[in-house]
């Protein structure tokens, strides 16, 4: 009888320890919330506001939580975590020549559309994979250094010295026209959309 009572008490104790925490989904935007067991997470994520938040990138690799909503150079915000890769929402910028830089990388890490911070975090350079040499992507030379909406100024070394206007649709990873919701507002979009920072466009999150 005494052994039965002891086993029952032990079972109740273990059960209580692994009860799912009754808390609403409260992960940072884009992360997937799963139940927490006490304060322990078994989804490879981290405990946050009573639930477990995923830290998986789209390619299955582990990501890291952003700091103040900002990811470090070379990573980008995907699924609510910072992930590496050229198809990230803020991939690396690469300058063929110093004159291609549009200016220094700002403190928030967001360059003008079509550009991203380089690996050193010093300059804004054309986004890696931006097909600015493709004639189908080029509208023509800039006029007084300006391009129409939807195009980015890019200095192409062997081309027009005043620079070319290049279609932002040629930036890798940009969503199709039918999945857009207009320009981002200070890096934010309405519910259901995510700011794709290389082109400053709100793309469907679905």
Automatic annotation (TrEMBL):
Q: Which residues form the signal peptide?
A: 1-16
Q: Which UniProt keywords apply?
A: Signal
Signal keyword on record: yes
Protein name in the entry: CC domain-containing protein
Native organism: Diploscapter pachys
């Amino acid at each position: 009888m005494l052994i039965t009572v002891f086993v029952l008490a032990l079972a109740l104790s273990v059960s209580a320890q692994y009860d799912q925490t009754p808390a609403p989904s409260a992960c940072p935007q884009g992360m997937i919330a799963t139940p927490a067991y006490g304060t322990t997470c078994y989804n490879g994520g981290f405990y946050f506001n009573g639930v477990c938040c995923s830290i998986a990138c789209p390619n299955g690799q582990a990501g890291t939580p952003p700091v103040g909503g900002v990811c470090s150079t070379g990573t980008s915000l995907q699924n609510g975590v910072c992930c590496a890769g050229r198809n990230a929402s803020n991939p690396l910028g690469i300058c063929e020549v110093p004159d291609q830089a549009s200016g220094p990388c700002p403190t928030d890490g967001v360059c003008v559309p079509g550009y991203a911070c380089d690996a050193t975090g010093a300059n804004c350079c054309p986004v890696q994979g931006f097909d600015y040499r493709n004639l189908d992507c080029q509208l023509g030379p800039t006029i007084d250094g300006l391009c129409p909406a939807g195009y980015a100024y890019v200095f192409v070394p062997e081309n027009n010295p005043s620079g070319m206007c290049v279609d932002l649709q040629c930036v890798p990873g940009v969503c199709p026209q039918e999945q857009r919701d207009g320009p981002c507002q200070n890096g934010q979009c309405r519910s259901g959309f995510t700011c794709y920072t290389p082109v400053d466009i709100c793309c469907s999150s679905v």
